[in-house]
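Session log. Operator J.P. requested a structure for one protein chain; no other inputs attached. Running the standard single-chain path with token output.
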Amino acid sequence: MNSLSAIDDITAEYNIIVNMDLEWYDSRLTHPCGKEPVVLTLEPPQYTRIWTPQLGVPDVKEPGSVEFNAQNVVAFLLRTDGYILIRSRLQLTLFCELNFKNYPFDSQICSVSLQSRSSSDDNIVLQWRETHAFRNADRFQMIGYKMVGYNLLNDSVHLVDTFSDFNVSRVQVRLNLKREWTHFLMDVYLPSALFVSMSWLSFWLEISAAPARVTLGNTAMLTLVTNSMTTREKLPKVSYIHALDVWTAFCTCFVFASLIEFAVVSYIYHSSRNRRHHRKQSQQSLTSMTTLSSSSTSSMTSISKYLDVQEPDNNKIVVPKYIAGDCNRKFSRESGDSFRNHYRHQYHCFKSIFYIRNPQSLANSIDRKCRFLFPLCFLLFNIIYWLIV
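Structure written below.
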């Protein structure tokens, strides 16, 4: 085998250039002349004067490309004991059944078969030579794949035509090819990992810098989607998920999760301002209600005091006024307590023990934790991914 071109992943085609030696004995050409047979080296076109088997390659794209002719026959030897050797140089375009489940770390098995086209295995039997049956040329070239081994098979296949069906002899070589995936590290894996890492920079920006954080996340998301679409264009539309799809999907999920995290912390960060706005509106409505009836002034004042909440401070605990009191107070029916008021009082005391933070501190705390949580999860995913593939 002289060369094997890269397999076209979309059409599943590849080109191969081989030198094929076809040997057989024909008793009709036996001419005894001494103890040792005499070897005659004839001109290649002279092969048309003898009988030659009709052979074919089943997976070839162009039928008839293995026919012997003056262009592909390069040597013709004839021995006086009936031995015949025809060497031909063939350039074939073959089909290969591909499986992309582990793409781009996949291994493919492509077969090159040679079988009789018109004679059954009772008349013609094809077999590999016992020694040096298959080998690569000294300057063997291969692009995109690396051949890690091969298997030689001799068998028979059932052939069905219009008039009859019979078994024909076949020889087959199965090439074990492994894709070279080093360039995928530079073209796909490293850029996508960098864009995922770029989305983590938003955790170090202020929550109030919404345009910068959103722009950073959207840029990483659009770049990953574009890179994924470009990679998918180089593959056929298959119904299953391959290894590169898993990597791209998880990278996209990490970037999308950073956007969701910003939406959550932004909502928490501005929640106190929204509450103050609603409280101001409620107090204004209560004030307007006092103008309707002077008799309800005292009741409205008590309600507004009941709803009054301390203004949040950056480092202080936010505790409503109505729950202020002794948290160690026990439940007593004589004091007029109810179960609902008692457990409500204990619940707010329990929250105050664990230092309820104001929304701004809580949002900033989530951002600080995500600075380490996201890289740790991505590192864990990489360990699992590269161990499996």
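Operator note: The domain at 3-180 is CATH 2.70.170.10 (Acetylcholine Binding Protein; Chain: A,).
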